[in-house]
Design goal:
Blueprint lengths: L13 H10 L1 H30 L1 H5 L19 E2 L14 E2 L6 E3 L11 H9 L4 H6 L10 E5 L4 E4 L15 E2 L5 E2 L7 H8 L2 E8 L18 H13 L7 E7 L3 E3 L6 E2 L2 H12 L9 H21 L9 E8 L4 H4 L13 H18 L5 E8 L6 H9 L4 E4 L5 H5 L2 H6 L8 E2 L3 E2 L6 E10 L11 E10 H5 L5 H12 L9 H8 L14 E4 L4 E4 L8 H10 L3 E2 L5 H10 L5 E8 L2 E4 L5 E2 L20 E4 L8 E4 L6 E2 L1 E3 L13 E4 L14 H10 L11 H4 L9 H5 L7
Parallel strand pairs: 8-9, 8-12, 12-13, 13-14, 19-29, 22-27
Antiparallel strand pairs: 1-2, 3-5, 4-5, 4-18, 6-7, 9-10, 9-11, 15-17, 16-17, 17-18, 19-20, 20-28, 21-28, 22-23, 22-25, 23-24, 25-26
Organism: Ostreobium quekettii
GO molecular function: voltage-gated calcium channel activity
InterPro entries: C-type_lectin-like (IPR001304), C-type_lectin-like/link_sf (IPR016186), Ca_channel_alpha-2/delta (IPR051173), CTDL_fold (IPR016187), VWF_A (IPR002035), vWFA_dom_sf (IPR036465)
Length: 727
């Protein structure tokens, strides 16, 4: 098999390609008209869906049941139709059972229909009025494929109505047991959904493949798969979510590094994705953990792709959003006393060495005129250190998440698309890559568009509601187009719409949530005044001192090593703390942790402690530092003789002797945050929630008002094949 890093046949130079395209200009115009007709359908469907959502409150209360695609008793769908060809299970029999009078719904995997949640009931009933626009919005091909709307909670309404495979026709583990082993389906993981919500992007997946990834965490629960086996399954599925406007690659690292497609990003087409999947299958975890190796390879891919896209004729980058997905289950060599490939400088900590390295690579990327990369980081397992991954995400407009043994890592890894989707309210129709239709149409391409809630009371864009899509069979396009590659190039050119991702301080925090909330990024100042506490604070960058020296420094200035008296104070102190941690006035003595200034005892189970903190004092770590990994769970024990930065606190209201008004930042009601505390974002949060709130009437709806009766079990053949069809 040809290695991904080897050179394949060169593409035709761009001028020659343009001449070839010009020669078939007339056919291209015809193709553009066909594509335009499909996009018009999507725009019409999206407009109706947005309108229904905006006026959903009174309509949801009038909800009548919808057929579930896993049900068995249908009405109009018993009629045989040949418009969409035949179902594979029906062999050579022409046509299949379809319902052109109404759409069917699918609920997300593992949904218990007997206790249907209010959110799902609301989604099913909100879009019940789509059937007329589905039926009337036809493109120039006529009725040749599916049209649908899928919501952020996983509900999908599809037209024309058609039944899903079930029973023995569904492979083990892929069906919903409570629904007669009906084929499980999550639209949020399909290429068209991801393409519409996240837009064009360059994505590098950076995966820790150290020996610890062979650990099995779920043995107590009967799951004997290793972390790597679980991650590998998620990666293989994640590769299937990318669209033709995306450029991707995968980096595996331990104490060495390997780029699966050397030196370049791959356009996410079927052949390239298949090659990456083959490479993932060959990975064997071993060795240690060196974050900078993996990150260097990832940034070099983004930098090289950006450079080549400017200089070369061959497209090598989306020239749009840059994303790094970084997953680790361990502790970096810089903080674990293991050997690293790059030295840690004498004047920096291990944590700083990683974060400074990332900033250096981001600067190189920006120098090319590129956007900075968003870093989405994941700590796999309860024992995975979260210090550097959390701080990486906070410093680089990303989100951190912890993946536990019973979580679905694919859902976590794919969550970055929701982050990118949150600012794509002005997006046009985008085209997915070609893929095999899950409902039997063969190779299709989807035109899709995200839909959003109404503008909030604060004037902000409403939240993402879902995606509308319309399929076209590739055979229908190629029958009228001058060649398959021209079709694909047209889809790519129409799908590239780069919308800058810019967040306000609250928007970013609301996306992260409480567990991954990041501290403020304060401008440099000698002193800080926190109105919430009435006190002043100093956080000198130099000198680095041990605990006793730091305590003496603060006392010489007329203050003391800072104490945390309330959650907001912890939040603000994290904002002026160093990446690797700054001394606070908390020490371990006589089997308890006590704040030196106030004498208050801090419970060893307090939520100020980081997840992996050993508060027993047995390891000689009897002093404490606060770092920037979050606004809570950011304090951890440290050996008192270690050198670190520190935070001094001075009781107000008077200005401390070491501070001047001109070099003091006052954090009060007039202060403009770069990254606002979630506690100050409640008006924005409530406004966004109100704009996308569940309809009050949904709570009172019964299951039978929402989902029509299923009837007696039937086979796939019985629900899909025409009555006169014989096997």
């Amino acid at each position: 098999m040809r290695r991904l890093g080897s050179r394949g046949p060169r593409l035709a130079p761009l001028p020659l390609l343009l001449l070839l395209l010009a020669a078939c200009c007339v056919r291209c115009d015809e193709l553009d008209d066909l594509i335009g007709s499909v996009e018009a359908v999507v725009d019409e469907v999206a407009a109706r869906a947005s309108g229904l959502f905006k006026g959903r409150f009174p309509e949801v209360g009038k909800c009548a049941c919808t057929q579930h695609a896993c049900a068995n008793d249908f009405d109009a769908s018993d009629k045989c139709h040949e418009e969409l060809g035949g179902a594979s299970i029906c062999k050579d029999c022409p046509g299949q059972k379809l319902d052109f009078t109404k759409s069917f719904v699918l609920t997300p995997p593992l949904t218990d229909l007997e206790s249907l949640g209010d959110s799902l009931k609301d989604s099913i009933c909100t879009f019940r009025g789509m059937d007329d626009v589905f039926a009337n919005a036809t493109d120039e091909f006529g009725v040749r494929a599916w049209t649908y709307v899928a919501t952020t909670n996983g509900v999908m309404r599809s037209w024309p109505g058609h039944a899903m495979e079930r029973g023995e026709d569904v492979p083990a583990g892929e069906g919903e047991e409570d629904l007669g082993n009906c084929q499980s389906y999550d639209p949020r993981l399909r290429p068209w959904y991801v393409a519409a919500t996240s837009g064009p992007k360059d994505v590098v997946m950076v995966i820790d493949t150290s020996g610890s990834m062979l650990t099995a965490d779920g043995e107590l629960f009967g799951d004997f798969r290793s972390r790597w086996e679980i991650t590998k399954e998620a990666l293989l599925a994640l590769l299937g979510t990318f669209g033709i406007s995306d450029y991707i690659n995968l980096v595996e690292f331990n104490d060495e590094v390997k780029v699966l497609a050397t030196g370049k990003l791959l356009q996410a087409k079927e052949d390239e994705i298949a090659l990456l999947r083959d490479e993932v299958q060959t990975i064997e975890p071993l060795g240690g953990t060196d974050f900078r190796l993996g990150l260097e390879a990832a940034f070099d891919l983004l930098i090289n792709a950006t450079t080549r896209s400017i200089e070369d004729e061959e497209p090598t980058s989306s020239r749009c959003q840059k994303v790094i997905l970084f997953l680790t289950d361990g502790e970096d060599c810089t903080v674990s006393d293991s050997k690293c490939s790059m030295p840690v400088l004498a004047n920096e900590t291990g944590v700083d060495s990683v974060l400074n390295f990332i900033e250096k690579k981001q600067t190189e990327l920006e120098a090319l005129g590129s956007q900075r990369a968003h870093l989405f980081t994941f700590s796999f397992g309860l024992e995975a250190d979260d210090e550097i991954p959390k701080e990486m995400a906070c410093a680089h407009e990303g989100v951190w998440n912890r993946i536990l043994s019973d979580d679905d890592p694919l859902v976590a890894l794919n969550a970055y698309t929701s982050y990118l989707a949150s600012r794509r309210g002005d997006a046009n129709v985008i085209w997915s890559r070609t893929y095999d239709d899950a409902f039997g149409l063969g190779t299709v391409v989807t035109a899709a568009k995200p839909i959003y809630g109404p503008t909030t009371s604060k004037g902000e864009q409403g939240g993402l509601i879902g995606v509308v899509g319309h399929d076209v069979r590739i055979e229908d396009f190629t029958a009228k187009a001058p060649g398959f590659q021209v079709v694909i190039s047209r889809f790519i050119s129409r799908g590239v719409q780069c919308i800058p991702i810019e967040f306000s301080g609250c928007e970013l925090q609301l996306l992260r949530g409480e567990e991954a909330e990041c501290p403020e990024i304060f401008d440099d100042a000698k002193c800080y005044f926190f109105a919430a506490t009435g006190d002043y604070y100093m956080a000198p960058k130099m000198p680095l001192l041990n605990y006793v020296e730091a305590k003496a420094f603060c006392e010489d200035q007329g203050g003391f090593l800072a104490e945390i008296d309330e959650e907001l104070e912890e939040n603000l102190m994290a904002g002026i703390a160093s990446n690797a941690g700054s001394w606070v006035g908390l020490t371990f003595n006589n089997s308890e942790w006590k704040w030196e200034q106030s004498g208050r005892v801090e419970d060893s189970r307090s939520d100020i402690w980081t997840v992996l903190s050993d508060t027993s004092g047995r390891g000689g770590e009897t002093c404490a530092v606060i770092d920037r990994r979050g606004v809570v769970q950011n304090v951890h024990p440290k050996k008192c003789q270690d050198k670190a930065r520190f935070i001094c606190e001075f009781v107000g209201p008077g200005l401390p002797k070491g501070c001047k008004e001109g070099d003091t930042i006052r954090v009060n009601d007039d202060y403009e945050y770069n990254v606002r505390p979630l506690s100050t974002c409640r008006p924005e949060e409530e406004s966004l929630r109100d704009a996308t709130a569940i309809s009050p009437a949904a709570k009172g709806l019964t299951k039978d008002q929402v989902i029509c009766p299923f009837g007696e079990p039937k086979s796939t053949f019985e629900v899909r094949c025409c009555k006169d069809c014989k096997l």
